[in-house]
Design brief:
Elements: H1 5-10, E1 16-18, H2 27-35, E2 40-42, H3 49-62, E3 67-72, H4 79-89, E4 93-97, H5 105-110, E5 114-119, H6 122-131, E6 135-139, E7 145-147, H7 154-164, E8 168-172, H8 178-186, E9 192-194, H9 196-199, H10 208-216, E10 222-225, E11 232-236, H11 239-243, H12 250-265
Parallel strand pairs: 1-9, 2-3, 3-4, 4-5, 5-6, 6-8, 8-9
Antiparallel strand pairs: 7-11, 10-11
Helix pairs in contact: 2-3
């Protein structure tokens, strides 16, 4: 058993957090993770708050182990509703993401919850620590799903954060198994968050064809979409998204048109 600040804060045996993937991180998967001794998470990024309520209720029947809820601020119409609900349900652990750590940290901590915030940059980590979070989920650009449009490699970001701040850090983005977890611990993390590998697990609710596509994918089979604005997205490469061309924001169009003229004038 590995005991550190993450296992003590979360009350788990294994310092692994299951990523809060929309529509996927529900009771079927999250209860299996919690029952295995790690931290299962229920998502809210789907925006289906009625379904989230049902999933939290199901978790109490499926496991007697700790589990948490993610509050994805940018993807729910009224995050305050889910904050109040999480507090009322007696959930002990919350991860917050896709928004400011100053928005709900104080309210959640005043209710006795442990709060980790997802950070994609060193500056975001500083903001979260100042807001009083209990820990950070340090997310590099290698991970799947929604990302910072200017992704930083986990190898660069993680040691930068752990050297700058003395808080519990969970590494996310590109982690798969024991060797990669050992690397995260060597870089100062006290746990890892796993997403894509959880999607391909037996307990995942996605179709077997999608699971097999993940298993068969090579190291070059992802594509980074919408790098011009937030949220960007890393996804498995398909014929459809290979053709996708996300245009820059309108203010960028003028810059693109004007720059060649400036070069010609020189």
């Amino acid at each position: 058993m590995l005991t550190n600040r993450v296992t003590e804060l979360l009350g788990v045996e294994i310092p692994i957090i299951q990523a809060p993937m929309g529509w996927i991180a529900r009771s079927q998967l999250a209860s299996a993770v919690s029952n295995a001794g790690a931290m299962g998470i229920i998502e809210t990024s789907s925006g289906e708050l009625d379904a989230v309520r049902q999933e939290v209720s199901k978790m109490k029947d499926l496991t007697d182990k700790p589990f948490g809820v993610n509050i994805a601020q940018a993807f729910v119409a009224d995050p305050t509703v889910i904050v109040d609900f999480v507090i009322a349900q007696g959930v002990s652990f919350v991860t917050t993401s896709a928004g400011s750590p100053t928005r709900y940290t104080a309210q959640l901590k005043d209710a006795g919850l442990t709060v980790f915030h997802v950070v994609p940059t060193l500056r975001a980590a500083e903001k979260a620590v100042t807001a009083g979070v209990d820990g950070l989920i340090v997310e590099g650009g290698e991970g799947g799903g929604f990302k910072n449009p200017r992704p930083v490699s986990t190898m660069v970001l993680l040691p930068s954060v752990t050297m700058a701040f003395d808080v519990s850090a969970v590494a996310a983005g590109g982690f798969l198994a024991g060797r990669t977890m050992a690397a995260a611990l060597a870089l100062g993390a006290e746990g890892v968050q796993l997403g894509t590998v959880m999607v391909s697990s037996v307990e995942s609710p996605v179709h077997d064809n999608w699971k097999q596509a993940i298993i068969n994918a090579t190291e070059t089979d992802t594509v980074f979409l919408n790098s011009h604005a937030s949220p960007a997205l890393r996804a498995l490469r398909t014929k459809r998204n290979r053709r996708a061309r996300v245009r820059p924001r309108p203010e960028c169009d003028e810059l693109v048109r004007e720059r060649p003229r400036r070069l010609l004038r020189r």
